[in-house]
Amino acid sequence: MGGDLTGGSAAAQLAFAGAALAIALGSAGFLRRQHRRYGRLAGWPGQVTAAVLATGIGLAAYAVWPLPPGTDGLCAPDGGAPAHPRPLAALTALPPAHAALAAGVLVPLGLLLRYRYRRGVLAAVAVCAAVAAAVEAVQYTALLGAYPCAYRTAALDDVLLGAAGGLAGWLLGLAADRVLPRSWPGALADALPPALGRRLLGHLLDVAVCWSAATAAAALLTALPVPGRAVALAADPLRDTLFAALAAVFAVAVPLLRRDRATPGRAALYLALAGAGAPRPAGRPRVLARAALVWLPVGGLLVAGLPWWTLAVAALHGSTAVVRRDRAGLFDLVAGTRTTTRAALLGGLPDRLMRYTRRAEPAPAAP
């Protein structure tokens, strides 16, 4: 990684990391809102919620994919990928697979707008057309200026195809209403031990935000011209330093300051860290011990360029959780902590949970 934003691979590093950071932050915000409003996501409505998240991530990936590995030759000889602003101008010029993808990628969104969110046909088509237009805007502006010229064809026809795909999805959602269970979640008290997938997702959000933010910042700092700087900064050591600093903030500083002792990613999923055998927040020394056990091997493997080996760390930690009734991971057993939910540790109910109060009996009339 190095160079400037108009050459070399700095643009690709910045574009990839920026897109990953936006996806991670958007996912965290969506999951936090769902858990705040509905508590534990379970059953078929929970799976539909996961489908909503997967659809959003897929659309974000489609908007930027495929990212060029560099900018050499990207703008030659005609200044990048052409644009087709006139309707029906590109349908004959583009391959059928492109048209099928442009329409098919909006089908899940149209389906969910009807099946999950109960939107009418006009609203669903309008939303899908707006999303397709946003995708084309990202392509036309070369990922909001991250690249010197467009690397994918932007066409008004793709917006029309996206609207058509949204309409097809809405019709599928109308049929799904008749054969599938209720999709809207009902609020549930979040008092049970959290599932392993939820706990793993919290760690994944933390790592994704730290790594993508460090990569994007390093690419930007090494690319921007600085007056008086004679030697260019080395991108990889700078990225590793920024990642270590962000990891320290996420894994140590934030949990020590929060009542639930949660990192930002785990807080988005309303998780908390309690002491073993005690329904109270874990002590600060135990929080530090657990952070070291989790983050030192994960961070070391990422810095060493061995990201897939972090799966071995996750498997090691989860090896005890799958056989214990309290679902305590190996690092929790060593540090004397337990992962629980915020509601179980600190109390509280979901915002959408129905609350019934006993109606006050009228006082008897005085004789």
Structural write-up:
Residues 194-336 form the RDD domain. Helices cover 58% and strands 4% of the residues. The protein is mainly alpha-helical. It has two domains: 42-179, no CATH class; 196-346, no CATH class. It has a two-stranded parallel sheet. The protein has a two-stranded antiparallel ribbon with strand order 3-4. The longest helix has 29 residues, at 10-38. The N and C termini lie far apart (89 Å). Mean pLDDT is 85; it is low at 1-8.
Mean pLDDT, all residues: 85
Kindly provide the radius of gyration, computed on alpha-carbon positions and rounded to a whole number of angstroms: 25 Å
**How many individual β-strands?**
4
Q: Uncertain spans, ≥5 residues at pLDDT below 50?
A: 1-8
Q: Spell the H/E element sequence.
A: HHEHHHHEHHHHEHHHEH
Q: What structural class do you assign from the helix and strand content?
A: mainly alpha
Task: Enumerate how many helices there are, as a single number.
Answer: 14
**Strand content bin:** under 5%
> N- to C-terminal separation?
89 Å
Number of domains: 2
Largest sheet: 2 strands, parallel
- Strands in their spatial order, largest beta sheet: 1-2
The percent of residues in helical segments reads 55-70%
Shape: flat
